[in-house]
Each structure stands twice: as C-alpha cells, then as structure tokens.
C-alpha cells in the first residue's frame, strides 16, 4: 500500500486545479453520474434500507469516485490521485480492528456487518464546548460513570482563565493541553482510569495544538485516538496532513473524520451515501486511519436526523460494512438539546438506523453541537443504552421503529428546542441529574421501549 | 422571437442551468429591443424563486444554486447597458464582502450565504476561507462595501469575528461598514456581545438581515 510520504509527494505534484472547479466541475458532476450509472434510488418512506444489492452498488460507485476524482489538497491546490489497483489494495489491507484503552478497559474495536448481533462499539460523549474547566471535568466524570462506555469523547474548552480560545493561538495550545489533562483526571475520578479518549485533541483545531498537547505528560496515551478531519467535500488541508505526519510517526491511532453534506456538493441522499463510503476509502488511503468517524449532515437543518440523512447513513453503513473491513463510528448531530423529548426520539432513530446497518456508534450530540455546555451525561447514558440494545434489532425491525420515531420529531426540525445547559440539568455540587430530567428520561425510555427498543435494563 | 417566448425560454434556461442558451436569449432580447424589465420580472426572478424553493425541498443542490445565480448575474450584465439607457436599471441592494475568518477552513455555509446574497440582489466579493483580519478591512475599503459578512464554524474561530470588529474600531472604520456574523456556533447573543450589526441562523435569514441593514 502506498505510504504517507507518497501521499505528500502526490499532494505536491498532482494536477493543479482551482478549488471551485474541483467542487463544481470535477466532484459534483461525477457524483451525479455515479448515482445514475449505479441506479442509486433513495426511499425516504423507508429510512433503513434492506437492499444488499444497492449497498454493494454504492460501494462500487465509491471506488469509482476515488479513482475518477481523487482527494483535493487545499494546501497545494492539487489533486491527490489513485489508480484503481491502489484503491482496491488499500481496501484489501484495511485494518479490520483496533485496540484501545488500558487495563480493565482495554477493548478491541472491530468492524461489524448489517443485521449483526455482535455489540456496537459504544463511544460516549462529545467535543462540545464547555464554559469552564469545572463543567468539563464534571461532564467527563459523568461519562466515565456510564458502564456501557467503551471510550469517551472529551469536551473542548472555550476559554482559559477568561481568555477566549482562538484557533492557532498559543492559548489554544495551552487549552488543548489543559483539556486533555482534565479529561484524564476526570476518568481517574470516575473509577475508569483505563478508558480511552477517542477525540484527541478536542480543543485543538491547529496541527500545532494537536502536536503540542499529545505528550504522555499531558495525560494522553498511545491507546487513545486522534481525530483528523477531511474538508467537505473530499478535500484535505495541510493542517490535517501535518497532524497525520506527526501522529503516524509514533504509531498513534488516527480517526479519519468526515461529514458529507446533504444538499451540498454531493447532492441528494444517493450522492451522500456514495461520498460517505468514499470517505472511508480516503481515510484508509490518505490519512492512514485506524477507524472512521462519519457524520453526514443536512444543509437545510444542520443536523443528521432528517429522512434524507438517515437513508444515506443506512445505505452507506451497509455499503461500507459489507465490503470494507474498517471500524466505523456513526455520529449524529441532533437538533433537540438536553432535557427535550426531541433528543430521545432523534437519537434512537439515528442509532437504530446506523447500528442495524453495520456501523458502530458514538452517543449523538445534542443541540447540533452549537450551544456551550449543552451536553450532559444523562442523555449520553440513554444513548449508550440504545447502542447496547440496537444490535438485537434487525434492519427490517429498525425501519418500522425509525418510521414511528421520525414522525414524532420531523415537524420540529426547522425550529428545534435547544434544551437546557448542564448547569440546569444537573446538580453542580453532586454531579448527578436533577429530578425533573431523571423523570423525563425515565418516561422517554418507557415510551421508546414500548415502541420496540429492547433495552437491557 | 416574441417577448412571451423569450420570457419562457429564459425561465427554462436558468432552471436547466443552460448558461450558453440563456445568454444567447438575453442578447437576442437586447438586439430585438424587447422589454427587459418584463423579462427580468416575469422570467428571471421567478426562475430564481423556483431555484430557491427546489433547494429547500432538497431536489436541487448547492452547486446548481451557485450556477443558476451566476447565469442570473451574467444575464443582468447583458441587460445593464439597456437598463441604464432607459434609466430603469435595477437598483442593486449593496456590496457585501464575505469570508470565513482566519484559522477556519470551512466553506460550504459561507458559499451558500454568498450565493443567496447574489440571488437577493447584492454584489458579493467572496474572499474565501482562512481570511486574515486586515484583509477584510482592506478589501471592504477598496470595494466601497456596505456590509462585511463574517463566517466562523468553530468555537475557537468565533473570537476572530470580535477581533475584526475591534480592528474596524481601531482603524476608525467601524461606522463605515455594517458587520454581519454567522456560522454554526454563532448566536444572536454572541452578535450582540461583540457589537455586530446583524446575525442570521441560515442563508435566507442572512439575506433578510442584509436587506434590512442596507435599507
């Protein structure tokens, strides 16, 4: 398989093309052609696809997309191109599993299949911004207490001693270090010191911030995972490549992160499904990733729970899991915030869609990840329980449940309830949920259980 | 060609993203001395309304929205001399300098707002992504802009929106330009806190706010 230095060579010698031309004349028309060529037909009335033949066609289309379009490097304005043989070889050699965590919490994150009864990896938490170090600590400590968790995502700090954290600044470097230290201390306090953190370094957007904060002295371990993101669509910047150059040099696990946008340059649900699948191939080839974090979004609602996105997640999860041995975490940006009924309906719909289709999952992020402090361990606990229940649900059963859930929230997607921040949902002194939120959670769990989700407890 | 025929064909040309055909028709309308205002009001504007509807319904996508906006702008340029002659030139709503702030490489939300502003009658200079603070000021001055529109998708790049407003104050330029802010983590509260003149949660909202600021 071609190595990372070869990727760097191609990024600096590939075909020169203006970015807008890549978007509009190279990428978009090819995706539209592939949707037609492979007859990819979405079905918004049935968000969870049960068509294996179409899943395989989406995979074939994704291979074509990689070969015909490649990946655009914004740092050099050149296209990193691959032959079909190189693409297929990378898929053949994809890492099917990856070890994370230490001691009692050391686990193997494996790829899954559609209608697979084996457990989904349960990644708990989010990188949502917190207003203070105290809230960040309490949130991660709460995540560590979720017994279903295989790994956690740590929040990012929005300020350090009152100074706003700006991307690329020295304050960002300091805040990234501080956030990593807080997350590790909080996990220690929760009694799960071996749990891996899989979204390092959450506060760092720059390569400098990631590299500076990734020292054992700052609480990070080789058994954690680092996020490195593509840019929509099928583009990668030098900041991302710089992170990979550093991380792969000491064998750290890279999570290739991708968020194809429904209604954007990959078009409709069929195009999103093809692009989401192609991103996994790009993650293996370009980022030398160990696992993928995939979160397709809807351009009109800025969330992941519209019918079009759900269908694309289902179809692409099946395309990936049937044809590529690579661990994938599906992540949803939920429109509803903490302490809203919407969160529970949307999160359940998304998790059943992704997990029955062969993906693993992260607990969905409330309030579209837009509101500071709008995340709590209680909705994440609920989602972790859905993640544990979902492998017992087939695609066919999931489709019927998801249809009922979508009908409960889709009318509110244009103006969703943002919910309440951590400070209003939890008791700040004890770090436990308030009665009002516990009661809502229990009521929603009963209702969703009655719809057919087989919770363990 | 008859006036009604041109109106229908220009409407179709925009919806079918047929740049060449639409500009041929626009040139024919000028050379045959047809009613340009009528063509704009009954053909081109309804076509752009339909494009906007289809985008929101999810049957038409961002690149097609961008291309249709470009065809619209090109056709308007063909009509411009004729409109000026008849003194009925459409009054442009104003000039907007737009970009994603320094440290932030996200472009799609900003692209969408830029396109919708063009469709809404604004002249738009898109500076791209990762734009340094003083580039916004320099380009706004040079273009005699009315509005500076700042996009940020990350909580760590939002503070740059505040810094640009501070730079405008430092340079004595704050009163010269209206400043709009947007992007996923940005809110009305943040806009007020940093002293921005306008905020919108989505692209159609950004056009409404921009029109309000330039009224």
Structural features, described:
The complex is a heterodimer of chains A (457) and B (215). Chain A is of the alpha/beta class and 457 residues long. Chain A is 45% helix and 13% strand. Chain A has helices at 4-13, 19-37, 52-69, 84-92, 133-144, 170-190, 207-213, 238-249, 269-285, 307-323, 341-356, 377-389, 395-409, 422-425, 435-451, and strands at 15-16, 71-73, 78-80, 97-100, 107-110, 122-125, 129-130, 151-153, 156-157, 159-160, 163-164, 225-229, 235-236, 253-258, 261-262, 291-294, 297-298, 328-330, 360-362. In chain A, the strands form 6 sheets. Chain A has a 7-stranded parallel sheet. In chain A, strands 1-3-2-13 form a 4-stranded mixed sheet. In chain A, a hairpin with a 4-residue loop joins β2 and β3 (78-80). The longest helix of chain A is centred in the middle third of the chain and has 21 residues, at 170-190. In chain A, 64% of the residues are buried. Chain B is of the alpha/beta class. Chain B folds into 2 domains: 3-85, Methyltransferase, Methionine Synthase (B12-binding Domains), Chain A, domain 1 (Orthogonal Bundle); 95-214, Cobalamin-binding domain (Rossmann fold), CATH 3.40.50.280. Helices cover 59% and strands 11% of the residues of chain B. Chain B contains 9 helices and 5 strands. In chain B, strands 2-1-3-4-5 form a 5-stranded parallel sheet, sandwiched between helices. In chain B, α1 (3-15) packs parallel to α3 (36-57) and α6 crosses α7. The longest helix of chain B has 24 residues, at 62-85. Chain B is elongated, with a radius of gyration of 19 Å. Chain B starts with a helix and ends with a helix. The model of chain B has no long low-confidence stretch (mean pLDDT 89).
